[in-house]
Each structure stands twice: as C-alpha cells, then as structure tokens.
C-alpha cells in the first residue's frame, strides 16, 4: 500500500470548508451545477452510462456522481475531503438516488484493491488540485477494465487561463472563492496527453468548455485554451 497519500491537505480543507454549499445551485458551486449537464451528456454520448459500473474520482459533493446514477449507472464516488463526502452521502439518502455509494479512499489505494473493476472512470476538476496528477492518471488506468473509457477535465496553463480562470472567475466575477485555483498547478493538454500515454491510455476525444459572462451561458467547442476535457480509452 502507498504510505504517502497523493493529496494536498490545504486543498482538502478548502473543499471541506465549503461542503454545506455543494447542493446549493446559487452558491460557490453554481458553475459546477451549470456545467454538469454539458459534461454528463458528453460522457454519456461517448460511453453510454446505462448499466455501466462507473467510478467518479474526486467526486466532492456528488453532483456528477448523482446525475450519472440517474442515467442508469452503478456509481462509486471517492474523495478524501471528508465533509464533502458526507454531504454527498446525505444527498443520496435524501434524494433516494439509486445505485450510488461513496468511499473516503485515495484513488491509488483503490487501484491496488480493485484493479480493472470499472467500465468507465471519471476524474473531473481534480488533477489541478493534487501534488502528483500523473499518479492519479495511472491509477485511473489501472482501475478501468480493458476497452473501458477514462475521462479527465482540468485547466490549461497559459496567460489566457490565468486571466479567465483566476483573475476573471475568482476576483472580478467572483464566481469562485478566491484561492480556488493555483496557476502553477494548471495542466497543459500536451502534459496531460503525456501522462495518459505513459499510463497506457489512448486519447480519443477532447472538448473545450466556454463561458459567456454576459449571458451566463456555458457551451462545449473545440477550443481547449482554458477549461478542457479529454476522453481516453484503455486498449484491450
């Protein structure tokens, strides 16, 4: 077993502190609620969720986990932010969400315990919050079955991303709490592609996520210069 957990205590504390607001669509998590239908449909269009066994890595309060379960997947959500995970569990009980469970466990530990156990693995908005994103990518590869899909989302590292994702979103528009993101932890698509290749995952699709602050509308397109998602597949 890994004795060193691939997590930043400050990051875990940050999201635990906000835990009670996860399911408030007008809270600091409003952007997650707004983009959830977009990323859910993108995932579902590539790897239809009905009847699948799905792992949501870094699930937080369970916004995406819950919606995937309602698409017919059997979902396991994992996170190390204790309070956020408790909120996810409570919401699942209150909403009577079928076929969903949550565990407080590191993805690397789960990969050792349950290798090749999931049809699809999702890791959204997490890689830019951990000390070693390559380790997470490798664990996601190890957890998915041969032929299964692994999805990632993160933020590009460039001047435009700094201006929009940090200065714009956190300080000017105040869409996110100040300090939500650290620019140095952002990940260029070429870097993420390298992590995936090294882990044995083959990138198949990518999408950029765009936002118009005037209309408050999000949409997907081919521009990966700021927020982006990729779909990868494990050979076999």
From TrEMBL:
It catalyses: a 3-demethylubiquinol + S-adenosyl-L-methionine = a ubiquinol + S-adenosyl-L-homocysteine + H(+); a 3-(all-trans-polyprenyl)benzene-1,2-diol + S-adenosyl-L-methionine = a 2-methoxy-6-(all-trans-polyprenyl)phenol + S-adenosyl-L-homocysteine + H(+). Keywords: Methyltransferase, S-adenosyl-L-methionine, Transferase, Ubiquinone biosynthesis. The keyword Transcription regulation does not apply. S-adenosyl-L-methionine binds at residues 39, 58, 79, 124. InterPro entries: SAM-dependent_MTases_sf (IPR029063), UbiG_MeTrfase (IPR010233). It is an enzyme of class 2 (transferase). GO terms for molecular function: 2-polyprenyl-6-hydroxyphenol methylase activity; 3-demethylubiquinol 3-O-methyltransferase activity. It comes from the Bacteria. SUPFAM superfamilies: S-adenosyl-L-methionine-dependent methyltransferases (SSF53335). It holds the Pfam family Methyltransf_23. Its EC number is 2.1.1.222, 2.1.1.64. Belongs to the methyltransferase superfamily. UbiG/COQ3 family. O-methyltransferase that catalyzes the 2 O-methylation steps in the ubiquinone biosynthetic pathway. This is Ubiquinone biosynthesis O-methyltransferase. It comes from Comamonas sediminis. The gene is ubiG.
């Amino acid at each position: 077993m890994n004795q060193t957990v691939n997590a930043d205590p400050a990051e875990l504390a940050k999201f635990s502190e906000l835990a009670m607001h996860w399911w408030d669509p007008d809270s600091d998590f409003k952007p997650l609620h707004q983009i959830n239908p977009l990323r859910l449909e993108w995932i579902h269009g590539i790897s239809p969720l009905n009847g699948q066994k799905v792992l949501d890595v870094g699930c937080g309060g369970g916004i995406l986990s819950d919606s995937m379960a309602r698409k017919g997947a059997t979902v396991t959500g994992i996170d190390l932010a204790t309070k956020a995970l408790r909120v996810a569990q409570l919401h699942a009980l209150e909403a009577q969400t079928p076929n969903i469970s949550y565990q407080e466990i590191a993805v690397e530990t789960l990969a050792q315990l349950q290798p090749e156990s999931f049809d699809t693995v999702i890791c959204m908005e997490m890689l830019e919050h951990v000390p070693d994103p390559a380790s997470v990518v490798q664990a996601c590869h190890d957890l998915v079955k041969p032929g299964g899909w692994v999805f990632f989302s993160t933020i590009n590292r460039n001047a435009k991303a700094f201006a929009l994702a940090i200065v714009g979103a956190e300080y000017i528009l105040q869409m996110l709490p100040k300090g939500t993101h650290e620019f140095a932890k952002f990940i260029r698509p070429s870097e993420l592609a390298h992590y995936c290749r090294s882990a044995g995952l083959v990138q198949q699709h990518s999408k950029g996520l765009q936002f118009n602050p005037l209309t408050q509308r999000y949409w997907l397109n081919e521009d990966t210069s700021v927020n982006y998602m990729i779909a990868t597949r494990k050979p076999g």
